[in-house]
Amino acid sequence: MSDNEPNAASAYMACVARGVGEENAFLTVISVLVPKNCRTFIAKNRDGTAYIRAFRTMRGIRIYVYYLMDKRIKAKILMMSMALVPALSYAQCPHCTANDTAAAAVVSTAETPCCTAETQCPAGSHVVVGAARTDVYLPLLHGKRVALFSNHTGMVGNRHTLDIMLEGGVNVTTIFSPEHGFRGNADAGEHVSSSVDPVTGIPIASLYDGKRRGIAPEVLAKFDVIVCDIQDVGLRYYTYYVTMIRLMEQAAANDKDFVVLDRPNPNGMYVDGPVLDMKYASGVGRLPIPVVHGMTLGELAQMANGEGWLADGARCRLTVVPCAEYTHATRYRLPVAPSPNLRTMTAVYLYPAMCYFEATPVSLGRGTDKPFMIYGHPDMKGRDYEFTPRSVPGAKNPPMLDRLCHGVDLSGISDDEAIAGGVNLAYLIDAYRDLGIGDKFFTAFFEKLIGRGDIRTMIEHGMDARAIAATWADDVRVFKDRRRPYLLYAE
What we know:
The protein is of the alpha/beta class. Helix content is 26%, strand content 18%. The protein has a seven-stranded mixed beta sheet with strand order 9-10-8-5-11-12-15, sandwiched between helices. A four-stranded antiparallel beta sheet has the order 1-2-3-4, covered by helices on one side. A three-stranded antiparallel beta sheet has the order 16-18-17, with helices on one face. 49% of the residues are buried. Residues 1-7, 30-41, 55-62, 64-123 and 184-191 have low confidence and may be disordered.
């Protein structure tokens, strides 16, 4: 939230101070300040001690007023009748504003025009990531010992968040690294040892070393707050969010604060795929969410915390530093490849359709220059495209190593087509029917990736991709309603 946004929190506090009561204060501020054709409204008071977030639900307007006291966030929620609050119909654009002064806002009846749903959102290049908003989070970290969960994607321009924090006087005592390591060059699933950052001398505690699931007691004693700054790609089986959830659980269990410096979701424009049946929960699926959940890590952290999805229903002290100039309609192009085999935006957009080959004998291009953009097998027939996987950094022992594969090249697909395809099982079904090896095609890993036990049977019984996708449509609608209270950005 920037200084030119409405000062609604100050207006609310002024109303309460005049003795009008909290409920009337909510009504006064929200009915005046929330533009009638906006869906989501966010505002803060001048000294940053409180802010308001309001959004539409089926039952009315849900309003969060957050108070920052002793650097801890408390939330207050009030539901109002839709009859009391003007109807909202369109998603708010980041450029929308209302009256800027608290006193005038409370008494003004002027409305501010807002972008309609058809309006194009700003280009992803204008997005300000949470890590760039040092004015918001450096004060929160002052005087604290900080553990930073990040990797090579934690960049602001050409500077790493670690360097920005150190230059800002933050006492970073520990670095946590996820799958692929702090430098992002380890293979998928490869265990990465703990080490020391050679530039700063700060210890790196690997969370993917295969030894323990929790944080060692001697490491826990070295920090007060965990800061998460890492680029996710918005898929349930992409493991960075799983590691974040584990850290949130550790924070809750050990009385630590948790701060997310939010980043855009490059697949945040839509929601698709089956919701995870929790009997298939694993290291590639930790929460009951669709394959493509459409949320940023900050939003997902809020949902996991609010829905009681952390271990034993625990809740951690969570603060999210949101992005600016971002909505869920923004197509954000990643400035840094998030992992060794997601090298292009085409691969990122095809990832919801291609990852299931990991649970089959078919190569999806690891060990080539087009991972997650091609698929093939030595025994596939009638194919013009050929490739041979080799041992390369980030894919030391890829499937079908050194074997000539016949298959399909999707690298020329347009962004629009790849995004529209979503969780498209057509490629998987194509290879399944071509090889003709029946139940030998799938491994047990498939259910962990797709999240349900009946999809394999549907494919084996001859259902096509469109018919299978129809089986999760209702689950997607339910999930979108369930996640709405936790969204930080207009849909």
